[in-house]
Design brief:
It is a single chain. The chain is of the alpha/beta class. Helices cover about 45% and strands about 15% of the residues. The chain contains 28 helices and 26 strands.
């Protein structure tokens, strides 16, 4: 069996085509012991060659006999499973130096085809003075760099730039044990030159004599010997004989000579002459011998006279003729019997041959089954190893992220900042610290008191550290939360004024009192501006459109525990939303309204009620404590009380809640207040779409639980058509509409960039994290192999999931200008294998007129206008192939411009919000 080198980075197959080479096949195969698989294609040998090969090779494939190796080579290569191949004839053996050379090259190949020097052993002798040294043969190659035809001595075709000529000075060569004697040379010469598909010797003119002399002179001149006799001269003449015979057979075809047909015509002519000659002589002889009897016989038949008694001579002649006829009959019978025996013998030989082939096929099948079983076991073992490595890698990544989170938390903690001066003092004055330690060592009671104070300060500082994000996606997540600690009761509201920052945003909601007949209160757990994820962008765009339609909007944001908003974030949002409230979990309400605004009447110092007694019946109907706690965290009592007080002060026309978890307090608000819920996701389908792919930390709702939540609203908003249909089945008596997200689409573009830049823009949620990790693990190596210059730019918080950054990958984090990132990209990827909702980052890339490669889940909810830019993969291998194809076949600027016009209509505010406009008018 083949024994592979453990340090080889490229796999190699060994291939030998054999026929009746029992005395050489063992040595030939043992020279290939270093390959990863060894395959022998045997052309129905009858001398035991296949049996010896089966003891050494991994696999023996038996095929029908053909006169030359070229007729089998292309077929034989299809049985090799590795990209690199060492292909040998059955009379060729690699030198030890050649095996070392090949093993070294496999570590870092410098070419695609290697031409190895070939040492011919003709008549059992190799002489470097002979005409044939040195010759080179392509016996080691990458299968993608060479092709083979059935032409004798001309089957290999490859590009010269891909070839490397191996020098013979170091001993690397092929020992070609080709001809044991002159008879074998003549036999091979006749066999090879009888094949019509062969490389024929070149010639000029019809002077056969000159050609024969020229061939002898040519090969003698190539001989590095001045002797008139000896081995070099003998093999030169043999080589010339080959070309002379080849030329004579070509001349025979050119002259149209057909010896068999000529012999047939000559025999036919002679047989005709024989019949004529022997027929005349027989008649004359019989006439002289039978004479009157013949005449009488004819007369008897003519006139029917009485029969005459034959004479003794006539009887003797008739007896001789009868004997002659009997001999002919016996000869014919013997010929028939001989032909029947020959046919029986041939039938028996065919039967034996068929049995032998059947046995060989059964043995080959048995070997194949064993090989398949061995490969299956190896595959299972490799898969198990891979899973173990993946689990270890994921654990290492989780440990890295955990340590990184701890480090960041420590660096941002109050205790770290407080102890900063002490660390600087310790760095600058190490002697002082040593003296202090020595002093405390001499006074253990004082040291104990100091340590007690330090531990107390540390606990106080640690309490100020922000807890880990509670949503699987992070601060702007769309996924339902993990288990969240209950919110503490708020004693009273405290109002704080927001200092708004300046902004360049063109989006400004109309303030109170400026011709705003309709009032809207929007409540959310995420701050829509500045948007950090797709859901925030969609909320902002919807509020922007509602403001343009004349709605006076009050935005209330109540972040989840562990997701506090910074002053800079709140200030930036206050510059865009003129009526903004941000609620802390301790009852502090940050706002940017005027102090005497009617909406603030009675809020300062108000003590919100405990609503357990009012909502217990509705909440206990779910029967799941986890869901009840989630609803109370999204919509705590103080938030519902705030909404109720604001509605009392301003009497809103519409309440818009972001996510179904915000509908907890709908039953406690005015009955004539129109209530709408923007679902973003259908959580009851996540079990089938997401959880089955091993994505954890995803909160799942049953269809009955989700139906209970959405039916609390008057208007239910789905994010894409399929999910809107699902919501309609849950709430058949409600107004269920579809509202996607509007984007500004580029309608004029230049050519895609020449660089092979791949872009991923995503937030940090479990689905995005898993998609990026799997892409880097399975697809990225394939892409880099086919596109060595390709680069992957990872934008957004999803880059934090990558603990070890592969070559060619750049983690860019959050960028202020995504347009520049899209402008550099030749293709955008969305490697999320599953999910719910509308893939807003896919839509964003389409509106930038960039090709997108994604899985089927990534195109949910997208119309036909986007299809030309979408490339949908079925697995990670196909994903890599699609990316490489887009990089090779980039769309033109004209095609992108035409697509931009169609997409601009589909993603315009008029198209996106048409159903919402009708629903609001109806209510």
């Amino acid at each position: 069996m083949a024994v592979a080198e453990s340090n080889s980075t490229n796999k190699v197959s060994g291939l030998v085509i054999s026929y009746n080479r029992v005395n050489l096949i063992g040595t030939c195969l043992k020279a290939l012991s270093f390959v990863d698989e060894l395959i022998v294609v045997d052309k129905s040998s009858t001398d035991g060659t296949a049996e010896i090969a089966a003891e050494i090779a991994d696999r023996v494939v038996v095929v029908p006999w053909s006169p030359v190796v070229e007729q089998t080579k292309a077929f034989a290569i299809t049985h090799c499973t590795h990209p690199w191949i060492v292909c040998m004839d059955d009379d060729e053996c690699l030198s030890v130096e050649a095996t070392r050379f090949i093993r070294r090259e496999l570590l870092a190949p410098r070419a695609g085809v290697y031409l190895l020097p070939q040492r011919h052993y003709i008549l059992g002798v190799h002489d470097e003075r002979a005409y044939y040294w040195p010759e080179y043969q392509p016996r080691f190659f990458n299968r993608d760099k060479i092709s083979f035809t059935q032409t004798v001595h001309g089957g290999a075709q490859f590009e010269e730039k891909d070839a490397f000529v191996v020098p013979f000075e170091d001993g690397a060569c092929i020992h070609h044990l080709s001809h044991t004697d002159v008879a074998q040379w003549i036999e091979k010469t006749n066999r090879y030159t009888s094949n019509p598909d062969r490389v024929r010797v070149a010639h000029a003119g019809d002077d056969l004599a000159a050609f024969a002399h020229g061939q002898i002179d040519l090969h003698l001149s190539a001989t590095k010997s001045g002797e008139a006799s000896g081995y070099p001269v003998a093999v030169a003449i043999l080589r010339a004989v080959y070309n002379i015979i080849d030329r004579l057979k070509t001349w025979e075809e050119e002259e149209g000579l057909d010896g068999e047909e000529a012999f047939r015509l000559i025999c036919a002519r002679l047989e005709s002459e024989y019949r004529e000659e022997f027929s005349l002589q027989s008649t004359a002889s019989r006439g002289s011998r039978l004479g009157s009897a013949s005449t009488t016989h004819i007369a008897f038949h003519a006139e029917s006279p009485a029969p005459l008694k034959p004479s003794a001579d006539d009887q003797g002649n008739a007896l001789a003729l009868l004997r002659l006829t009997l001999r002919d009959v016996r000869a014919a019978v013997e010929q028939i019997r001989h032909e029947a025996l020959e046919r029986d013998r041939e039938a028996q030989e065919r039967e034996r041959d068929a049995r032998a082939r059947l046995n060989a096929a059964a043995e080959a099948q048995e070997l194949l089954d064993k090989e398949n079983q061995k490969n299956a076991n190896a595959l299972r073992f490799a898969q198990q190893r891979e899973m173990d490595l993946i689990n270890r890698l994921e654990k290492a990544e989780q440990a890295y992220l955990s340590l990184d989170g701890r480090l960041q938390a420590t660096l941002s903690s109050m205790s770290w900042r407080i102890t900063g001066p002490l660390r600087r003092v310790a760095t600058r004055y190490p002697r002082l610290i040593r003296n202090l330690k020595a002093f405390l060592a001499r006074h253990p009671r004082l040291k104990k008191g100091v340590m007690r104070i330090v531990r107390f300060d540390w606990r106080v500082a640690a309490d100020e550290l922000p807890s880990r994000p509670l949503l699987a996606e992070g601060p702007s997540g769309t996924d339902a939360p993990k288990k969240i600690p209950p919110t503490k009761p708020v004693r009273s509201f405290k109002l704080r004024t927001i200092e708004a920052a300046t902004t360049n945003s063109a989006f400004q909601l109309r303030p109170t009192g400026q011709d705003a007949p309709r009032r809207l209160m929007c409540v959310s757990h995420v701050l829509p501006f500045p948007p950090r994820a797709g859901n925030e962008y969609r909320i902002h765009q919807m509020l922007k459109w509602l403001g343009s339609e004349g709605w006076e909007i009050l935005l209330i944001v109540c972040p989840l525990p562990g997701e506090p908003l910074s002053k800079a974030q709140i200030s930036a949002a206050a510059a865009v939303y003129p009526q903004l409230m941000v609620c802390d979990r301790d009852g502090v309400i940050h706002h940017n309204l005027a102090k005497d605004a009617p909406v603030l009447k009675g809020l300062s110092g108000y003590s919100p009620r405990n609503l357990d007694s009012l909502l217990t019946d509705r909440e206990t109907s779910f029967g799941r404590t986890e869901l009840i706690e989630t609803l109370r965290v999204f919509s705590p009592d103080f938030l519902i009380e705030l909404m109720r007080k604001l509605d009392e002060n301003c009497h809103f026309d519409l309440l818009l809640a972001e996510y179904v978890f915000m509908t907890r307090g709908f039953s406690l608000l005015r009955g004539d207040l129109t209530k709408a819920v923007d679902t973003h996701d259908v959580f009851s389908t996540k079990a089938s779409k997401v959880a089955q792919f091993g994505i954890k930390d995803v909160f799942l709702l049953s269809e009955e639980e989700e139906a209970e939540l959405v039916n609390r609203a008057d208007i239910v908003i789905g994010i894409q058509p399929e999910e809107t249909r699902q919501l309609s089945s849950m709430a058949p008596d409600r107004s269920v509409i579809n509202v996607g997200v509007d984007f500004s689409v580029k309608t004029q573009v230049e050519e895609l960039p020449s660089e092979s830049t791949i872009l991923l823009v995503a937030s940090n949620n479990p689905m995005n994290n898993k998609g990026l990790k799997d892409f880097l693990r399975f697809s990225w190596p394939i892409i880099r192999k086919h596109q060595p210059a390709a680069e992957l730019h990872v934008v957004g918080d999803v880059g934090r999931a990558v603990a070890v950054v592969p070559d060619g990958v750049k983690i860019l984090g959050r960028l202020g200008d995504l347009d520049a990132a899209y402008a550099q990209a030749a293709v955008v990827i969305n490697p999320t294998v599953a999910g719910t909702g509308l893939k807003i980052k896919t839509v964003e890339a389409l509106c930038q007129l960039r090709p997108v490669v994604t899985f089927p889940a990534g195109v949910d909810g997208l119309g036909d206008a986007a299809r030309p830019l979408l490339h949908v993969a079925t697995d990670w291998f196909d994903f890599a192939r699609q990316v490489s194809r887009v990089l090779d076949e980039r769309p033109s600027a004209e095609a992108l411009t035409q697509l931009g016009v169609a997409l601009a209509h589909d993603f315009s505010p008029q198209a996106i919000y048409a159903q919402l406009a009708r629903a609001l008018n109806d209510n």
